[in-house]
Each structure stands twice: as C-alpha cells, then as structure tokens.
UniProtKB/TrEMBL annotation:
<keyword id="KW-0694">RNA-binding</keyword>
<dbReference type="InterPro" id="IPR042296">
    <property type="entry name" value="tRNA_met_Trm1_C"/>
</dbReference>
<feature type="region of interest" description="Disordered">
    <location>
        <begin position="60"/>
        <end position="92"/>
    </location>
</feature>
<feature type="region of interest" description="Disordered">
    <location>
        <begin position="502"/>
        <end position="533"/>
    </location>
</feature>
<dbReference type="GO" id="GO:0000049">
    <property type="term" value="F:tRNA binding"/>
</dbReference>
<feature type="compositionally biased region" description="Polar residues">
    <location>
        <begin position="76"/>
        <end position="89"/>
    </location>
</feature>
<keyword id="KW-0489">Methyltransferase</keyword>
<keyword id="KW-0479">Metal-binding</keyword>
<dbReference type="Pfam" id="PF02005">
    <property type="entry name" value="TRM"/>
</dbReference>
<keyword id="KW-0949">S-adenosyl-L-methionine</keyword>
<comment type="function">
    <text>Dimethylates a single guanine residue at position 26 of most tRNAs using S-adenosyl-L-methionine as donor of the methyl groups.</text>
</comment>
<keyword id="KW-0862">Zinc</keyword>
<protein>
    <recommendedName>
        <fullName>tRNA (guanine(26)-N(2))-dimethyltransferase</fullName>
        <ecNumber>2.1.1.216</ecNumber>
    </recommendedName>
</protein>
<dbReference type="GO" id="GO:0160104">
    <property type="term" value="F:tRNA (guanine(26)-N2)-dimethyltransferase activity"/>
</dbReference>
<dbReference type="InterPro" id="IPR029063">
    <property type="entry name" value="SAM-dependent_MTases_sf"/>
</dbReference>
<dbReference type="GO" id="GO:0008033">
    <property type="term" value="P:tRNA processing"/>
</dbReference>
<comment type="similarity">
    <text>Belongs to the class I-like SAM-binding methyltransferase superfamily. Trm1 family.</text>
</comment>
Amino acid sequence: MAEVDDKLKDYEIRKEGEAEILLHKRNAVFYNPVQVHNRDMSIAVLRTFIAKRKEEHEALVDKRNTSHGKDKLSEISCQNGEDASTGQQDEMELNKAEVQIDDLSKEATKPPWKVTRELKPPLVLEALAATGLRSLRYAREVEGLGKIVALDNDKASVEDCKRNIKFNGASTTSKVETYLVDARIHMLMHPKEFDVVDLDPYGSPSIFLDSAVQAVADGGLLMCTATDMAVLCGANGEVCYSKYGSFPTKGKYCHEMALRILLASIESHANRYKRYIVPVLSVFMDFYIRVFVRVFTSASEIKNTPLKLSYIYQCVGCDSFHLQCLARTVPKKNNGVKHAPAFGPVVPQECSDCGKKFNVGGPIWSAPIHDQDWVVSTLTGVKSMKDRYPAYDKITSVLTTVSEELDDIPLFFSLHNIAGTVKCTSPSLVMFRSAVLNAGYRISSTHVNPLGVKSDAPWDVIWDIMRCWVKNHPIKEQARDSPGTVILSKSPKLETFPEQLLPSANLGQRRRNDSFQTQSGTGARRSEQAGRSRANTSLCWALMPSTLP
C-alpha cells in the first residue's frame, strides 16, 4: 500500500462522472475541467444515437422481412394458380396450399436475416484523446458501445491515457484502446469503419474534416468542436475563408453564423466523396461551438446541397439582413426536378430600411441545424438520468431552449440592438413577442443569446413595431442621415390586428375611425391619415401588457 501511495504522490486524482484520471502535478498533458459541459452533452447525444440506431435497424429488418414474406406468398399463389389451370389440383391439394400459405405468413414475422443482419455495437473513435477522459467516460457511462479507439500524436498524452485506462479497471481496459498516431492518417486508413467519430481539437477542426467524413460509417455520427471563435465570428474573415471556405459578416448572430459556417464546411468535405450530412444538434456553449451530424452516402442527394446554402447580405447601417440561396429547383416533364442557379439579388444596392450599403458574406448553412425529434429525445433522456450528469443544469437549459427554437429560421436579431439603432429604450421581450404574434408571424428565443429573437416576420414589420413603440416613447432628435432617423421618418404600413386580439375599450375608437373614413365629402388625404392612425393605434395597443394572452 505504501508503494502505491509513493507512486501516486506526484499525481492528483480528478473525478468526472463515473471516470477518474490521474493528473500529473506538472500538468504536462492538456486537461480542461470547463469542458465537462461538452462531455456531458456528447454523452447525452451518444445515448440518443444508440437508441435511434437500434430503432432504425429494427424498422429496416421488419421492412425486409415483410417484403421477403410477400414475395414467397406470391410465388406459392402463382404455382397454385398454374396447377389449377391444368385441372390437376383437387380439393385436398387446395387445402394443403392454404395451410402452406398460412404457415408462411406466420414465418414471415420471424426475422430471416437474424444472423447476417445482426446489429453490432457501435465503434467509437476519439481523434484527439489527451488524458483519455472523454473515452473513459464513454466506456463507463454509455451502455451498448463496442470498442473505443483513443488517438493522439503526443507521446506523453498516450502514456497518460494508458495509465488512466488501467486506473479505471477492467470495465475500461476491455473496451478502450489507445495509439500514438496522427488521427488524420488513421481515419484515412479506416474508411467507413467507425460508427461515431469525435473531434474535439484545441482550435480549428478544419484539418481533420476531410479524413473524418471518410471514416464515419453510413448513418454514423460525427461530433465536432471548434474553439476558434474569433475567426468564425468575423474578426479575421480571410482566415475563416481559408479554413472553412466561408467569409463571415459581423452581427449579433455571429455565434450562430459560426455554427452554420462549420456545418457548410463539413458538408463541402462530405460532398467530395458522394456523402452528405444531416445535423441533429448544433450548440454554442461557453467559448466554443459543437455540432452533431449524421453522415450518409448518396450521389443523388448531394445534388440538393446548393439548396441548403445561402449568402448573407448584412446592412452596415441597421440590423437588417437577408439570405440569398445558391440554387433553386425547376420542375421537369417527368415529374422530376432539375437544379438551376437562384434568382437574385434579393436586395437592392441600398437598404430599403435605412438607405445604407450591404456587406456580403457566406456561404453558410441555411437549412435547419437541429432535428427537433432528437433534441426532445436527448432532453428526455437527460432528465431521466439526472444524477449521472455533472453539468445537468447547464445542458438541460441549453437543450430546453433549443427545443423551443424556430428551426427553419436562420440567424436572429437582438432586441436591444434594434432599439439602439433607433436610439430608444427597448420594449420588453414579452411585449415585442406579443406584437409579432398579433401581426400573424412566428417568434422564438435562441439558445445562443438570451436577448436574441428568431422570427419569420419581414424587416418592414419589425421596424413598424419599433416605429409605433417610439411614438409612445418619444426620443431626442437625431442626426438627419442616421439610420434610425431614416427608419423612423417612414410611416407604418402594418394593417390593424384582428379585433379579438385587441382590448374592447379600443373597439369603439376603431369603429369611429371607420365611420369617419367612409363619410361623404372627406378627401383622400383625410382618409389616408385615418387609416394610418388606426394602424398606429392598433399596433401600440398590441405593445401594451394588457393585450398579452
């Protein structure tokens, strides 16, 4: 016992989840305790992947068994029909054929592919293992996993990883293997071999993406982290383009744009090998982004990639932005479609809201970045195993917000930012949300920014809401050429909201306005003023707390 204590005197034991590692006091091998959020989220998604993979396999087996049974039934029916046509089938033989068909129907429910189609435990590859803590947690906490391969090209890291594998006992020594090798070479030498590939580099993952998309099996899961947020968020646009193939624009949505740039880059690498990705979860947490995508092979499906990518036009004066898709589909005579360049541009030379120019960025991934079914399943699984997640509070808050996002709306805007553009106090998020909903549009928050707003409302509706807000909350006079002044100088075009969404006290005034507008002898100018007054009054009522549902 004294000998063991003597060997461990230079180490300290760190526990995370169910795994323990020996960390040398000199801290020669990289270890970041803050990444517990990352590791917990990865374990949660990995558990969902194993469950979904099993469901998909069972569904595929059932489909094949049903098809196989139908073919056999058809074959026997045809044979019986031929016998009957020759007049050689008597009543006893007919009864016998019916019994055969019944027996075959029962056998068709039993999987005839049980041996050849047995689902094997998923193989996992961690490309940059360091201490091996992530692989150890996978081995000890995730049930149903097969072999886990932990790689690193640093000799000290591999020695640490081997030591930690032994320290965690038989449950890990039988599952986890570690090698001193360049992860890129190892992945290239094992194409489509691993069901799960985990990339968690310190910095950019760009140099690993090409080999990673080749190493993932069909339907497998690629988990990828990027920590070079300054590059992805627009501080060095030229560096971002050289690494990811996209040029970022600056805006409050920059962290979501970083997610979409990374997804577009992974898709680009996958397309070179007739493969494509399906994002199941994409999150921004702490100081990094993390994406979880499934990888499939299909030469026909990759033709739809341009439909999932867009350029972004960001106004330099106000917060408005617009997306320009790369392609469009054109119907063909045989009920098929062909792909053609998209019509554009979607914006004029100058912003229609404030009159300023646009910056152009992209291309970025403009398709959904989450699969809501996966998100809900993952969240449910996390809540059912609360005690097994050290970062339970963090990951449940992120997953809950993600589950409420509008997944078909790319990017978002900040409520404080648009209020800053017109130099007014910001309306509360509840009031703003009510106004957008009453106007007939959808709205949600975003996990990326607590003040972020996703909505399918066009920008003229957003600015109309702000115009009416400013009317009830006057501001100081601003410079004539400022974006806010130009925006507020325009009259609202938003129509009145439905009467059932407005206070009853306001209905009398609205009816008086209507009768005033229809009186004979009123000029066109007075009618226009009355209509404008109704729109302003209705919108302002929508911004008041008393109208909230």
